[in-house]
Write a structure and sequence with these properties.
There is one protein chain. This protein has 27 helices and 18 strands. The chain has 663 residues and is α+β, with helices and mostly antiparallel strands. It folds into four domains: 223 residues, Aminohydrolase, N-terminal nucleophile (Ntn) domain (Glutamine Phosphoribosylpyrophosphate, subunit 1, domain 1); 213 residues, Rossmann fold (3-Layer(aba) Sandwich); 96 residues, no CATH class; 66 residues, no CATH class. The protein has a seven-stranded antiparallel sheet. The chain has a six-stranded antiparallel sheet with strand order 5-6-7-8-12-13. A hairpin with a 5-residue loop joins strand 9 and strand 10. Helix 10 crosses helix 11 and helix 13 packs across helix 15. The two termini are 25 Å apart.
């Protein structure tokens, strides 16, 4: 059944309904068909514009999938329902044939009925999947191998499950999952986003990349149905490796743009390796000059339009450049905070939004993004930093433990001598285990929850939780080199939790689709087989990748340092600017919420007022975005008044947390 979802807001900022929501199990008042339809409408985001959605309700199960969602498809038979969306691909000829004839959801339903445990081995590509079988009290909820499509879920009192692609939609389920989690706030401040498997709301969780939730008779089981197939004994012939890389990338870009109208297809272009490679490959495939979109800034240190122009000219692409000013930021920052269903502090979301909006205004409906290359081919600075420290651990153990470590520990009186201080710091960090070594700076700031959150909430927070999350992901591969474990970690924490959320949601807000060819399974599988020593050969970032792209990309692109779609938040947040005033007002409101420690907030602000140091711009931005998100989803607070956020019932004053208004 198809229904209209009509909401009052119709402005461009409202965005579109992209996603799914529903449940298996439950009890009155939402188990009957009419009640189910009312509940599905209630879960729908009030920011959605007029849209059409596909709805299927069975006794004990219901699902709603927006027609605006890319690849939206629902199939039902014999009491079972499948909702599938995104850009799925099949690994078996039989399923591919069924999908071509009857749709991807029908192919998934057929594969599930034949082999419930084998469906996710057959299903590939970028997708979100829900299978509901209420007669057997079973459900399967999964996201793709890269975690491109988020899936939130919550256990219902009867052992069933509620789910949605949006945390705020799930919060509006009658079981009420709208209380903000102190642990999630703490983890947000540690990472500047809420990492999976947490949700910002108590009682909710979200799937990690390549993870599935299986529900059977009230039992919930999580598993990873796919892992990066790391190898240390893979192909070593550099020519064959280069050919393999281009073969995988060409397949991914071809499929990413497959079936699209070339006149309405473009690509992000920052001037870096990944976006440049995508533009170059798109130019090979396109029936007309590829369209490339870049944002620039008035601050020279952040502006890379010159590098982007070199790439566009090299491939004969039509190049569109949009300059983002402080006025653009002020005009859009509140809307951006509201667009996210969880607090999100990555400031480069502003650049992505304006670039996507600029493309949409020029008639583009689909953008290809280069996200993922840094994580697959060792391009982030953290790889080099960690590898440099790892060299110390390759010294003979007796030399380190009996000679160097004791000497460094004893000779503290030489700390006045800068080179010696650097030696001591190097040895200290080199002796830290992984992955703690990657987040050494955050550990010093967030070691005590009482320093970050108000004391009344510290009993509800485990300060070690962020590190526990990192350890689980880092150590998940059974046999992998340092570089490969960092791949595993960054694909989850940098890609799935951060960059993919950033780009997906900003393109959604701009009303445009986006695809990520670098995160095609074939490219990911290829990268997992590159000999680890090739990735950082000679302590050079992207050593293999750069060598492979020589002759394809301009020399200036190969030689440039990584930047990406960054935002000059430091100069724009400088004391006296309008954005700084917005930040100060937001942080004053945040202090009155009684969640983040007032001294923690004031300490950052005071240091920034005194020194104007750019290091403090990041935390100020994160705190501002937390408050702006809370105002959008939980009610604004007027300056100079007591905070009037709603509170959850049935809890002591000590335990209460402000809720987020669910609609």
């Amino acid at each position: 059944m198809t229904v209209d979802l009509i909401r009052n807001r119709t402005d461009a900022a409202a965005g579109r309904l992209w996603g799914v929501c529903g449940w298996l199990g439950g009890s009155p008042p939402y188990s009957g068909r009419e009640a189910a339809l009312c509940t599905l409408h209630a879960m729908a985001d009030p920011r959605w514009r007029r849209s059409r959605a596909r709805v299927h309700a069975e006794p004990g199960a219901a699902v709603m999938l927006s027609d605006d969602t890319p690849g939206a498809d629902i199939a039902a038979a014999d009491g079972m329902t499948v909702a599938l969306f995104g850009y799925p691909r099949w690994n078996t000829a039989a399923s591919a044939e069924t999908a071509a004839q009857s749709g991807h959801a029908a192919a998934a339903l057929q594969a599930y009925r034949q082999d419930p445990d084998g469906l996710l081995s057959d299903l590939d590509g970028h997708f979100g999947l829900v299978v509901l079988d209420p007669a057997r009290k079973r459900a399967l909820i999964a996201t793709d191998r890269a975690g491109i499509h988020p899936m939130f879920y919550a256990r219902l009192p009867d052992g069933g499950v509620a789910f949605a692609t949006s945390a705020t939609a799930l919060a509006r389920h009658p079981a009420d999952f709208s209380t903000v989690s102190p642990q999630a706030v703490f983890d947000y401040l540690f990472f500047y986003r809420v990492p999976a498997p947490l949700s910002i709301f108590e009682g909710q969780r979200k799937l990690m990349a390549a993870q599935a939730l299986r529900v059977a008779d009230g039992q919930h089981r999580l598993d990873f149905y796919w892992q990066m197939p790391f190898r240390s004994d893979g192909e070593r012939d550099r020519t064959r490796l280069k050919n393999g890389l281009f073969h995988a990338l060409r397949q991914a870009v071809r499929d990413g743009a497959g079936g699209a109208d070339w006149a309405k297809t473009g690509a992000f272009l920052s001037g870096g390796l990944d976006s440049s490679a995508v533009v170059g490959l798109l130019s090979e495939l396109s029936a007309e000059p590829a369209k490339a979109f870049t944002v620039g800034f008035d601050h020279e240190a952040y502006d890379e339009t010159g590098y982007a122009r070199i790439v566009a000219e090299a491939f004969g692409a039509t190049h569109y450049v949009h300059r983002v000013t402080d006025d653009h930021v002020l005009e859009s920052v509140t809307r951006i905070a509201e667009a996210y269903d969880e607090p999100f502090g990555n400031s480069s979301a502003v650049a992505v939004y304006h670039c996507a909006k600029f493309a949409q205004e020029h008639g583009i409906e689909l953008l290809l993004a280069g996200d993922g290359g840094d994580e697959l081919f060792a391009g982030n600075q953290i790889y080099l930093r960690v590898k440099t420290f790892d060299l110390y651990r390759h010294l003979p153990g007796p030399v380190r433990r009996s000679l160097i470590d004791p000497m460094v520990d004893r000779l503290t009186r030489l700390d006045w001598f800068l080179p010696w201080r650097k030696v001591r710091r190097y040895v200290s960090q080199a002796n830290m285990p992984m992955p703690e070594r990657m987040v050494e700076a955050q550990l010093g700031t967030y070691l005590g929850a009482g320093d970050v959150l108000e004391p009344r909430l510290t009993h509800a927070v485990d300060p070690g939780h962020p590190i526990d999350l990192l350890r689980e992901v880092y150590h998940r591969p059974h046999d992998a080199a340092l570089e490969q474990r960092m791949h595993q970690l960054e694909l989850q924490t940098v890609m799935a939790d951060n960059d993919l959320r950033k780009v997906n949601r900003m393109c959604e807000l701009a009303g445009i689709r986006v695809r990520f060819p670098m995160l095609d399974t074939r490219v990911m599988t290829f990268s997992a087989g590159i000999p680890p020593q090739f990735l950082l050969e000679g302590l050079q970032l992207r050593a293999f990748y750069k060598r492979a792209l020589r002759g394809f990309l301009p020399k200036a692109t190969i030689a440039k340092r990584k930047h990406g779609f960054g935002l000059p938040s430091a100069p724009w947040l400088a004391p006296g600017t309008r954005l700084h005033q917005l930040a100060c007002d937001s942080l004053a409101s945040l202090k009155r919420r009684g969640v983040v420690n007032k001294d923690f907030i004031e300490g950052i602000l005071e240091r920034h007022r005194r020194t104007g140091h750019k290091v403090d711009a990041g935390p100020i931005w994160d705190l501002m975005m937390l408050e702006l998100w809370w105002q959008a989803h939980g009610g604004a607070t007027a300056a100079g008044t007591d905070h009037a956020a709603p509170w959850t019932d049935g809890q002591s004053d000590r335990d209460r947390m402000p809720t987020a208004r669910a609609g």
